[in-house]
Amino acid sequence: MPPEHEVAGRATREERVKAWELRRWPRGPKLDVAAGARQAVLAAVQQRRERVGAPRRVYLPQLEGCEKLDWTVVAPLPTDRPLRVVELFAGVGAATQAVARLGYSIGEVIACERRGAARQVHKHAAAQLCREFPARVAPKSSAQLHHRLPQDIQLVTEAHLHDLGPVDLVVAGWPCQGSSAAGTGQGLDDGRSGLFTELMRVLKCMQRLHKGWGRSFGYVVEHLAAGFDKRPKVREHYDAARGLLGPELVVDAAQLGSRAHRLRAWWTNLEGPALLRTTLAQQARPPGLFVHQVLGRGRQARAPQTSGVAPWAKVEKPGDPRRALNTFVSYPGSYAFSRGGGGVLRCTDAAGDVTFGEPTAEERELAMGFPRGFKAAPGISEHTRRELLGQAMDLNTLMWLLAACREGGALRLQTSRSRLGGEVGARQSVRVGGASVTALAFRAPRGD
Known about the structure:
The protein has helices at residues 4-23, 33-44, 94-101, 116-132, 158-164, 196-212, 232-245, 253-256, 273-282, 335-338, 361-367, 382-390, 395-421; strands at 83-88, 106-112, 169-173, 218-224, 249-252, 263-268, 299-301, 345-348, 354-357, 427-432, 435-440. The chain is of the alpha/beta class.
């Protein structure tokens, strides 16, 4: 038998680890976006779905030479081997987090990101994932994270992509400073948002290469949902991008359970837009999720006066605590820095003095679905962490989208088998997301 003090020490360590794990996530009910997506897909396949047509093409001289993507739905991401994932405009690596936390194995992650601070955070967070999921995330998966491709997307050539070889998933979100409410309003004429042309060049080149290799890959592209913008130029440039990317899914992260609004457009070839839009319509915000569960001691958000304003999700109930903060912003000149009334949170210190402030980096991480402190890389300041989060994808939304695509793909495969040995339209027992469920088999039209 081990000595008594060793047993006590082991128990103490286990308690500390358990306490640390609990502290990494918000107080209150646990948010399981994958389970929510699964149930929403199963409800959606029994609904009538409108066919989604291709967006109209809008001619812009800035997009001269850009080819539209092939958005034909591809096979689901494989689950029988580790994935190779590419992140373009990678930022802090939201895709790496999403893929690992959804249960996929990761063999290699390749990132393209110009900002040194973002690269440092991504590397730090990837190392954390290796320790958290040692059986799922290969130790060497991020060894060449920022070395396989040039870190300026304008320098990525066909030769680089050819040398990279086949991949399974590409995730990208091009800069939105030209389209955001706090940005320039120049759309694709903004030098940063104009890098959309480089994104299209790289994605189209990858599609051609994979076709030659007899392979396909899934992609997910994210951008500000600028179709709701009041500025005609911003809307026109957004429509031009849609004409090349295909039909989008517009999602406010608050609808899925995030504690902050984030209205974004998403494009993917892992599932058709008709099913995804119907699935989103079936998705209700999980109950019991409030802003105060991610805030520090003495900090509180103002109670809501209305349910909300479209096109953002109307998740509030007057009289209840606030469920979602306004969209986070990241740089001076935006509305959060220009208000005369100070920040959005009421902060009371130990002496009872009241001030108003903005959410901290940790509070923003928790609100967007990330674990507490995942961006706390050595040498990265609080201000930089906030700035990087303001430009990051909402993790809950990305996980929900990938989970919905996984469930839809599983049902498509089941339908294919039923067409060979069973009756299409019959109720089938389907294994999706680790659970056996009964669902209505269906056929997903090409590109639908």
